[in-house]
């Protein structure tokens, strides 16, 4: 019988709760510890998910030798320091997206994984969705000819001025939390732009706090295809994505970052094909992490370190163009 992979959860917010729920559906995953800045919050989370060890500090979680791999679900501003500390303590790490505030921090995190011979991956769960892989297979198989454009929008109405999304000190703004998804579907399907300074253009409206409240732009891929992306904290979009090709179109149902259905429409006759592909949410990326760790690997072969580096460099350039700088950068 395969020994379980033992997980620790760092931070007790909404995304950590979602990950704990997902891990509970995986037979050979075991959550053995949770860490928080507050003992009371750690205790509450541990009681809710039946976790044996509740730590009132992150240092105590890193030091827990019962933990094989840590999931980090803290705000973006804390990712670098928490990831490096966990890796230095000998833990493998799955760090929530956006991986860091910037590419320089991402490089520090990857260097720490290499130095300590530990597994490290950005938790970009969409890249593990069965629907995205089926979508890519269909497109590369010529289902809609050559791709001309990919268009995606992720806009939510998030009004709380004190929430993490609107706080510059927590690396808030629409781009790192929401806009990363419209960028990612284009990158997943078509690859990285060759030169972000040449091939990416963005505009934004900044909030009084200095983060991007609404942002939109366009990215050109090596094939010549364009990804158009929009994101906002100030309104709700339809949360779908559309791929236009020379012989047809594909509409990806909302929410496009973890869809269960997409529709192919062929231009010549208007015929449509509805493709249903169920998913299990965050469980797919967690299972991938466990498989890679068991195989002795130090990075993913899907969400590679080079893909993460490219993503951070892309968002750095977009922030440079729109004028968003986080405290401490």
Automatic annotation (TrEMBL):
Presence of the UniProt keyword Glycoprotein in the record: no
Keyword Secreted tagged: no
GO molecular function: nucleotide binding; oxidoreductase activity
Residue ranges of domain GFO/IDH/MocA-like oxidoreductase in the record: 133-250
Keywords from the named record: Oxidoreductase
InterPro entries in the cross-refs: Gfo/Idh/MocA-like_OxRdtase_N, Gfo/Idh/MocA_domain, GFO_IDH_MocA-like_dom, NAD(P)-bd_dom_sf
Gfo/Idh/MocA-like oxidoreductase N-terminal domain mapped to chain residues: 5-121
Family, similarity comment: Belongs to the Gfo/Idh/MocA family.
Protein name stated in the entry: Putative oxidoreductase
């Amino acid at each position: 019988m395969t020994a379980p992979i033992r997980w620790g959860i760092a931070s007790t917010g909404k995304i950590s709760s979602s990950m704990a729920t997902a891990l509970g559906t995986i037979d050979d995953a075991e959550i053995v510890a949770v860490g928080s800045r507050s003992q009371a919050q750690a205790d509450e989370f541990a009681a809710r998910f039946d976790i044996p060890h509740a730590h009132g500090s992150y240092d105590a979680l890193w030091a827990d030798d019962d933990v094989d791999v840590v999931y980090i679900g803290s705000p973006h501003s804390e990712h670098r320091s928490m990831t490096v500390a966990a890796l230095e303590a000998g833990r493998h790490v799955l760090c929530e997206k956006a991986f860091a505030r910037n590419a320089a921090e991402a490089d520090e995190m990857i260097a720490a994984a290499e130095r300590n011979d530990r597994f490290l991956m950005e938790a970009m769960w969409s890249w593990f969705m069965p629907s995205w892989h089926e979508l890519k297979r269909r497109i590369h198989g010529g289902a809609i000819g050559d791709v001309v454009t990919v268009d995606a929008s992720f806009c939510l109405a998030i009004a709380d001025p004190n929430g993490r999304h609107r706080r510059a000190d927590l690396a808030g703004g629409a781009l790192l939390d929401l806009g990363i998804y419209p960028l990612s579907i284009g990158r997943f399907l078509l690859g990285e732009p060759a030169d972000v300074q040449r091939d990416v253009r963005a505009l934004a409206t900044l909030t009084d706090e200095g983060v991007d409240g609404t942002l939109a732009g366009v990215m050109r891929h090596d094939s010549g295809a364009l990804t158009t992306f929009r994101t906002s904290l100030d309104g709700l979009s339809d949360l779908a994505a559309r791929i236009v090709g020379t012989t047809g179109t594909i509409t990806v149902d909302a929410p496009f970052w973890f869809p269960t259905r997409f529709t192919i429409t062929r231009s010549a006759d208007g015929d449509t094909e509805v493709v249903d592909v169920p998913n299990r949410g965050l469980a797919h990326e967690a299972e991938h992490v466990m498989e890679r760790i068991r195989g002795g690997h130090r990075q993913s072969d899907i969400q590679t370190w080079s893909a993460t580096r490219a993503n951070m460099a892309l968002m750095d350039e977009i922030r440079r163009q729109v004028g968003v700088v986080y405290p401490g950068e």
